[in-house]
Write a structure and sequence with these properties.
The chain is mainly alpha-helical. About 70% of the residues lie in helices and about 0% in strands. The protein folds into two domains: about 100 residues, Orthogonal Bundle (Rna Polymerase Sigma Factor, Chain: A); about 100 residues, Arc Repressor Mutant, subunit A, CATH 1.10.10. It is built from 13 helices and no strands. Helix 3 packs antiparallel against helix 4, helix 4 crosses helix 5 and helix 9 crosses helix 11. It is globular.
């Protein structure tokens, strides 16, 4: 019921374009946790994610006149993704090469997954906690990006294409590989799925 009383994004954007800072601050309040979550999972470091989230809203405010309609949330996540990429590139220039070597297929060389270990569903299961976060961090950045946009933030393929700047086929390929890597990584902890009921219930279809 409370959501019905809140002004839609379109109204707040219109007011913001007219210089209403309170309206833009309402948009910040509405999306700051989502933006920070995306930045944090893409970057993996809280302070850097906070910087990227702040830059996201500053960039959005400066570019607000360029927003011509559609999903404001999708537009904002596109900016957040770019800011996180920039911050990640800055970090990678300062981090030893061993950090890149940690993300190898050898780390995930385990038995094929059971049908019930569904990473797309698991991403919404908070009971998986640290195991899921570790699995996400094991993904290469381009795969982590698409799986977060698709399975955490629920964006459509077309929106992800616009955000990432790659083709539809590349988005689907990266998403498939990301889900498979997550599935295989999470199979190391089958008790998590058993506790949530997914591995047992879905695996016996």
């Amino acid at each position: 019921m409370a959501d019905m009383l809140e002004p839609p994004d379109e109204h707040l954007v219109s007011l913001s374009k007219d210089g209403n800072l309170a309206a833009f601050n309402s948009l910040v309040d509405r999306y700051q946790s989502i933006v920070f979550s995306l930045c944090y999972r893409l970057i993996g470091e809280r302070t850097a994610a906070e910087d990227a989230a702040q830059e996201t809203f500053l960039s959005a405010f400066r570019a607000l006149h360029q927003f011509s309609g559609g999903s404001f949330r999708g537009w904002l996540l596109r900016i957040a993704t770019n800011c996180a990429r920039d911050e990640l590139r800055r970090r990678m220039r300062r981090i030893p090469a061993r950090s890149l070597a940690a993300e190898t297929d050898d780390d995930l060389a385990i038995d094929p997954p059971a049908p019930g270990a569904d990473p797309a569903l698991a991403l919404d299961d908070r009971t998986l906690g640290p195991a899921l976060e570790a699995a996400l961090r094991s993904l290469p950045p381009d795969q982590r990006e698409v799986v977060l946009l698709a399975d955490v933030h629920g964006l459509q393929y077309e929106e992800i294409v616009a955000i990432t700047g790659v083709t539809m086929g590349t988005v689907k390929s990266r998403l498939f590989r990301a889900r498979e890597r997550l599935r295989r990584a999470l199979q190391r902890r089958p008790e998590l799925f058993t506790r949530s009921g997914r591995l047992h219930d879905r695996g016996e279809q």
